[in-house]
Amino acid sequence: MNEVKLTVSNEILRVCPQFCLSAIRCKVKNTPHNNQLWEELEAFSAEFRSRYSMEEINKREAILATRQAYKKLGKDPNRYRPSAEALCRRIMKGNSLYPIDTLVDLINLVSLKTGYSIGGFDLDQIRGNLELGVGMAGERFEAIGRGLLNIEGLPVYRDEMGGIGTPTSDEERTKITAETTHLLMIINGYSGRKGLPEATSYSVELLKKYAEAREITIFSSTEF
């Protein structure tokens, strides 16, 4: 598998000194749909609607911290919502999530449960190492399913070819597809380390259960 080193820029650490991440690298088998996983996701969605109100979503610790990082970088989190918040709001509106494929559905479930905005990438499409920095004016970023996204002021992971992931959306070039066999999953803790180990363990459990994950390597930000 592609050996990727991850670093966090001083630009990010200045506005969010508590930032931590957890990254999972593994071999996987993606499938178009997994009924058991989808039932688990639907069951959690129903539970979520019974526990939260729309007004409480952006006060969840991980979501709130991501929004605060956006504001400090000059980005409006109501216009460019973190993906975890967008997923939660969709559920609260009574709308079902769109099934994509097993890996993406799995990542969405973890994001919903934890409030973390999670990057899911085809590791074989990443070129060189990754650094988490801040988007620049005019920087090209083709967001998955939504076209060109203005990432100026957004936290963004870049490889040697350009941006591949923000908390709002990932990029088309490195997205998960039916052909993905090597996964890089990055859990972004703008709220700090608290909760990251549990989210990582849960992610690995799901990856083993639904995507036949093997050769699993886990990194924390302190190791980068």
From TrEMBL:
GO molecular-function terms, A-Z: phenylalanine-tRNA ligase activity; RNA binding
Q: Name one Pfam family in it.
A: B3_4
Annotated B3/B4 tRNA-binding domain ranges read 64-212
Q: Which domain of life is it from?
A: Bacteria
Q: Which SUPFAM superfamilies match?
A: PheT/TilS domain (SSF56037)
Protein name (record): B3/B4 tRNA-binding domain-containing protein
Query: Which species is this UniProt entry from?
Result: Petrimonas mucosa
Highest classification ranks of the organism: Bacteria, Pseudomonadati, Bacteroidota, Bacteroidia, Bacteroidales
